[in-house]
Amino acid sequence: MTWYPTATVRRYRLDGGSMVGGPSRIVLHTTETQGVPRYGDITGLNSAPHFTVDRDGSVYQHHDIDRAARALRNVAGGVQTNRQGVHCVQIEIVAYAKNGSNLPAPQLSALRSLVTWIRAQTGVPATWRTISRGSHCYGASSPCRMSPREWVDFEGICGHQEVSENSHWDPGAFDIGAIVEDDMAQFTDEEAETLRGMARAVKEHGSNGYGLVTETIELIRGLYATFRKLIGN
Fold first, then answer.
1. How many domains does the chain have?
2. Tens digits of residue pLDDT in 135-149
3. Are residue 43 and residue 154 in the same domain, yes or no?
C-alpha cells in the first residue's frame, strides 16, 4: 500500500480495482467546485480520484496509488481507462477548467510536491503531449483526445481532456510544466542535449512499437544513473 506521507486520508471503500499493466501515467482533473467534493457516497458508489489538492495546499488521499481510482469514464467493451497501466494516478485540483493555470501559490506548490512524490513511487516520466488544451477539447471525438491505442501506450502526465472514451475538457489550458521538476536541471546543457539525442535515436530506430516510450525512458533512466555516478550525486 502506498500513501502520500503528508496527505489527509479521506478514504472511499470502493476503488476501481486492480491495474491491468502497461506504461504508468498521471491524469489531472479539475473539480469544477469551490471546495473538496464528496465524490458520491463515501460508503460505496463514488467517482473519487486518488488525490484532491485544495486551494490552500491541503492534499487529501482517497485511494492507494497501487489500485485504480474511479474518476474516469470507462465504456463497456472499450479500453481500460481507470485501470490502464501499472499505475494511473488521478489528481483532482480544486479549480475550474476555465481558469486554466491561474492557481493560488500554495495549491501550485502542493501539486508540484505531490507530482514529484508520485513520480518517485511510480517511475512516471516528466513528459506530456504537446497539444493545445482548452474548451475546444470537449467531447469524446475532440482533437485533443487520444485514440484507444495511444491511451494504452501513453506514459507521462496528461489531462482528463486527453483520455480516450471521455468527454470532459478539464483541467483546461493547464500548464503541466508548472508542476513538473526539470529532470535535466542537474546536467550541463551539453549533457542534457546528449540525453535528448539518444532518446530521439531510440524513438526513431530502437523500438518495436508497443515498447517505444518504455524503452526510451528506461534508456534515459540508465543514463541518468551513470551521469549521477560520474558527477558524484
1. 2
2. 999 999 999 999 999
3. yes
- The residue written with cell numbers 479500453 in the block is 79
Long-range Cβ pairs for the range 223-232 (8 Å, 24+): 223/195, 223/198, 224/183, 224/195, 227/186, 227/187, 227/191, 227/195, 228/186, 231/186
Q: Which domain holds residue 221?
A: 189-231
Domain presence at residue 102? yes
Across the beta sheet with 59-61, the strand order is 8-9, 59-61, 51-53, 88-93, 25-30, 156-159
The pTM for the full model equals 0.79
Q: What is the pLDDT of residues 79-115, one digit of tens each?
A: 999 999 999 999 999 999 999 778 999 999 999 999 9
Residue 2 counted as domain residue = no
Nearest to 165 by CA among 85, 36, 39, 77: 77
One domain for residues 102 and 120: yes
Residues 145 and 38 in one domain: yes
Report the CATH number that the domain containing residue 67 is assigned in CATH.
3.40.80.10
